[in-house]
Structures are given as C-alpha cells and as structure tokens.
Amino acid sequence: MGKVRQIVLARRPLGMPVPEDFQLTEAEMPQPGEGEFLVAMRVGSVDPAIRGFLDDRPSYIEPVALGAPINGMSLGEVVQSNNPDYPVGTFVRAFATWQDHYVLSGESWGLETVQQQPGTELHHYMGALGPVGLTAWVGLFAVGEAKPGETVVVSAAAGATGSTVGQIAKARGCKVVGLVGSPEKARVIRELGFDHAIDYRATPDIAAEIARAAPKGVDVYFDNVGGEMLEAILPLMRLHGRVAVCGMIGQYNDADHPHGVRTLWQLVVNRIRMQGFITYDYPDVLAQAQAELDQWMANGKLRPLANLRDGFENLPAAFIDLMSGRTIGKTLVRI
C-alpha cells in the first residue's frame, strides 16, 4: 500500500530546538479501520505549543515519545474512508501527527470539516479562519470577555494569534496595545490597525510604556508570553480585569527555569481573573466564532498574516524559525 513519510523526534531538545532533534523517516502506509478514514496532509500547522510536547514532562497531551511522529494540528483531504460522515474529498482539520498521511476517526481531538470558500486559499483555514482565529476569539471573548470601549493588551502581537487578537478586538470596538520584539513587527501591527505598538526590546521600562499607551489601565491582557511581561502588566490591570493565558512562549525553550512572577498579589488587589484555556474546551461558541471570523475576513476587518513554506520535509526548519522569534504571522507548511 506504499509508504508514509514521517518527521519523528530523534532526541529531546535542550533549549532551542535544532535540526538534529528531528528525523525524516518512512513507515508503512496506515490503513483505516471501521469508522475511520485516511487523510492526506495538505497544510501542516507549526505552533509554539509543540515545543512543550517535546519535553518529557506532563502537558495537556502526552509527551512525544522518542522515535515517534511529532504531534500537531493539520489540515488534510480524506483519500480513503470507512466513515460515511467523512467521504473521500472532504477537507478536515484535527490534532494529528507530522505524517503526510494519517488516520482519523469521528472522535479525533479537534476534528472539524472545512468548507473552503471560493477565492479563499486553503491555508487560511489553518490560520486566521482556523485554529488560530478560533483561539484568538475564544481567549478574547469567551475567556477575556472583552467589550467595546475596553483596553486590550496582547503580547507576541505580530505572531499568528496575537495579530488576530488585535484585529478582532478592534472589530469589536476595543482599544488595542500590541507588544512586539522588533521595529519591523511594530510597523506590521500598526498597519493592521493596532492603536499602539510597543517594541519591548527597545524599551528600558516596558511597564511605563504600557501605562502611557493605556493611562486608564488595562481591561484585558491576552498573554502569549508569560514571565517578565506578565509580571510588568499585572500592576497595570484595572479593577476586575481579565488575563487570558493562551501560552507562555517566554519559557518554552527553558521550562526547567521558569521566571517567577512577583506581582501575583495584584490578582487580589484588583480582583483580577486569570485563566488558562484550550480552544476546544469551548465547543458551544465555535460556530459563532467561525461565523464572525468569516464575516470579518469578508469585509476586510481581518487580514491574515501567513509565513508560508512549501514541502513536508521543511516542517522542522519552519518550527525552529518560529521558536527563534524570527517569524511574523502564522507559520504554515503547504504539502
């Protein structure tokens, strides 16, 4: 039945991942059982959360075993099916593995069908019109409960999720402050409509800069970074402010030595609600989220940022670039 290409974990990364941590291999083509279907990967998603799966420590999924394919979100096309709900030709996205073909069932985590709209490229359904957009919407509105007129601060604002958060917050009538790590990234988010762009690498006192941009305080902080950034922002939160914790990329490459946040007392002082989340914990709102994302895309209020690569074998290099902080927008690999 042919071979399947896989990218497996050759060794556990020490700090920043390097090419030697990964290996391109082949295995026998998997065959779908009863109720299952075979999917050909069309777009592979490269996400910071993958870094946590590579360490031998508990996370919200089991760590990737040495010699096993890397886990990650994927969009693919059904090419063989034993499930009438997912006939051949259906596009689906789900949490899968770095294989150019993989087997899913109707119970697979994060499984959704994708209805590609005319004129919209397929890769956008793994970005702003897919898991990235849904994560931004859930964190901002279901967890952060952002309302028109409120001030939203988002870290890693030129990244996949951060750039989407800022745009949909503006679409709902919020004031948005973005935190980035270079002048180029600051320029990008200003062009996307952010009210303020702060380059933290060029700012000796990040808290003072945020306070100048948000003199009445911060209502919602969408946290992608954690660590020192979270520590600086907590004292700037308004009474009953909300912190939606999407990720903590600031410590992914050194999870054994996390930054101790010294301002957590502010949670009590200002009765701040701080909550981590996973998008698929909120299935009841995903249809509304998808509809609003589609509408904002159609009327130009949401402009996806995509950092595109081509070729299955380039998944590790794309991931390494992402973790180095060199990328802007959503990193995707077209197969």
Automatic annotation (TrEMBL):
InterPro entries: ADH-like_C (IPR013149), ADH_N_2 (IPR041694), ER (IPR020843), GroES-like_sf (IPR011032), MDR_fam (IPR045010), NAD(P)-bd_dom_sf (IPR036291). One of its GO terms (molecular function) is oxidoreductase activity. It is an enzyme of class 1 (oxidoreductase). Keywords: Oxidoreductase. Its EC number is 1.-.-.-. CDD domains: PGDH. Residues 17-333 form the Enoyl reductase (ER) domain. It comes from the Bacteria. Transmembrane segments: none annotated. The keyword Metal-binding does not apply. This is NADP-dependent oxidoreductase.
